[in-house]
Design a protein that fits this description.
This protein is an alpha/beta fold and 353 residues long. The strands form two sheets. A seven-stranded mixed sheet has the order 9-8-10-11-7-12-13, sandwiched between helices. Helix 6 packs parallel to helix 7. The protein is globular and about 60 Å long. The termini are far apart.
């Protein structure tokens, strides 16, 4: 069984993920649905051979380290085919892998239905813009579209710090330095601290994972750079609470003040299944204004939804209002809207159910 054949098939089918799991059929996720090839059952020896091929494709990556740790996360690329984010792991005493398909072509914001108000965040000169949502919700795609706009329209030095790099950006009007964790630097925090000495205008941080990284990211945003990053949270209020809760209680008021000054926007997104068998992004968009700054400083993030509901002129929206829009446009059904809603009971009433 050849790895390249599987990857070519995935790209041809426009799959987003490939599953190599011993004992299971070779499977791919297409439009959010996992489809199994029942003619190809992966046995343990076949999965081990495929994973050896994956490691070889990444410049003969150290297989012994994986045997000790039981997990590894990296990316591989094939000319003319695309990049593939690989998560390799042990399970039931055998080797398994899930590969995310990332084509060389940069995503098109219109094709992915990313709102203009989100893409226009590329015009922010400094501060922090956060794209949030669960794993696989399209955060990296949205960030890539924003970076692409900066690259095409503004003369900046963009530094991306990713684990691994998902989208390759050519030098256009801007200069783009892309750093991959483990290959180019040790970890997020080390790379982020170094980036502050590399004359950046824009820093894309793949994920704000821990206290140190969040603290350094806030400092970077405060010192004049535009900081773009992600969190695995749903909704603006929860995102703000998540950042503040990382810090010790005696620092939290100071962080609230700092965050209120540097935060420019929080975009929360999730992918929802459509009535025609596809997937569609739903967005919650918070553009920080003086009212939201006050709520952050006063520890009243729970009141942010009221500002979002009244801020449509600025492009703001709640997740539930966007789900309601998709329902009225007949893109999703009522059950889907309720399933993905932040407040299912409230949305149920608006749907007259």
């Amino acid at each position: 069984m050849e790895l390249i054949t599987i990857l070519e098939s995935a790209v041809e089918k426009k799959a987003s993920d490939i599953f190599i799991i011993p004992g299971a059929f070779l499977s791919m996720k297409v439009k959010g649905v996992i489809l199994a090839d029942e003619s190809v059952r992966i046995m343990p020896e076949e999965s081990e051979e495929l994973i050896h091929q994956i490691f070889k494709a990444d410049r003969d990556r150290d297989f012994e380290k994986f045997l000790i740790s039981g997990d590894d996360d990296f990316s591989i690329s094939f000319k003319g085919l695309g990049r593939f984010r690989c998560n390799v792991y042990k399970q039931r005493g055998s080797f398994a892998a899930v590969l995310r398909v990332v084509t060389f072509e940069l995503p098109d914001a219109k094709r992915f239905h990313i709102p203009k108000v989100v893409i226009d965040l590329y015009k922010e000169k400094n501060g922090m813009v956060l794209i949030t949502g669960p794993a696989g919700s399209g955060k990296s795609t949205t960030l890539a579209c924003i970076i692409d706009q900066i690259n095409h329209h503004l003369g900046k030095h963009i530094i991306t710090i990713e684990d691994p790099i998902e989208f390759m950006h050519m030098h256009r009007k801007s200069i783009v330095s892309q750093r991959e964790i483990h290959h180019d630097t040790i970890n997020y925090n080390t790379a982020l601290r170094a980036a502050l000495r590399q004359a950046p205008n824009v820093i894309l941080l793949g994920e704000m994972r821990d206290y140190e990284t969040i603290q350094t990211a806030l400092t970077a945003a405060e010192t004049g750079q535009l900081m773009l990053s992600t969190l695995h949270t749903t909704g603006a209020a929860k995102t703000i609470d998540r950042i503040i809760d990382v810090f010790p209680p005696n620092q939290q008021q100071q962080i609230r003040v700092q965050l209120s000054m540097v935060l420019r926007a929080v975009v929360s997104q999730q992918l929802v299944p459509t009535v025609d068998g596809g997937i569609e992004p739903a967005f919650e968009i918070m553009i920080v204004n003086s009212a939201i700054q006050n709520l952050i400083r006063e520890s009243k993030a729970y009141q942010i939804d009221n500002i979002l509901l009244s801020g449509s002129a600025q492009g703001m929206r709640t997740m539930d209002s966007d789900l309601l829009r998709l329902y009225h446009e007949k893109r999703i059904d009522a059950d889907t809207a309720i399933l993905y809603a932040t407040n299912p009971e409230s949305l149920r009433k608006k749907l007259n159910l």
